[in-house]
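User: My instructor asked us to take a sequence, write out its structure as tokens, and then describe one feature of it. I'm not sure where to start. Here is the sequence I was given:
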Amino acid sequence: MPDFILDLTREVSRLWREFNWLPEWAVVALIVVAFVFIGWAANQLVFWLLQLAVRKRELFWRGVVGRARLKVRIMVMIIALALAVTVSPLDPGPSMAVRQLLGFLFVLTLGWMAIGATDMWAIVYMRRFNMAEEDNLVARKHVTQTRILQRVAALLIALVTLGLALMTIGAVRQWGMSLLASAGVVGIIAGLALQPLLTNLIAGVQIATAQPIRLDDAVIVEGEWGQVEEITSTYVVVKLWDWRRMILP
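Assistant: Let's start with the prediction itself. The structure tokens for your sequence are:
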């Protein structure tokens, strides 16, 4: 444990002895309120510095910081609560359980932030292309690739994030390792329940790179004429001539 946390713990214990007429729950509540206030002030300072740092940077960085406001606030509050629980006069069992839960939520928030950065990259990249042009073949090609890769990246980030989050809790650590393995972080383990999902993801990447079909392509499927409306990592949506939708794997 870092020295400053040990010092804080000793200081809290000393104050608690001076105010021993207060019940334990009141002491814990006061500590939590104090750390939440400190966390709120730290969040305001951190976000102001981030906005100042990216004010003259590219749209991507400005967008990432703008989208990260809520996520940064949550992360700072999680850190503040974790410190409050650590220095509070709680029993070791409840204290450990709360800290594990906060660690789980912290990792999930990091993954949420990474997915937000991926989405922002896709938005900025697709702004370069005009789908309204008459000759929009190149634009459709890049938009198709970007959307598929964005969804694949988001799903892989979600798998890795959930795996890392589960590994912070001893009782379900094996589940986290399985998720990491199925996402390709420590190798694909044959026979895992997520293997079919990974197969579909690989197929989605192949569609994005080989470009056998693109958004708005005119196609004939089972004798029906239509246009490719959406391409995901696992299926393709074709808008038929009579406005029906056909879902193809």
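For the description part of your assignment, you could build on this observation: Strands lie at 218-221, 224-231, 236-240, 245-248. Try explaining in your own words what that tells you about the chain.
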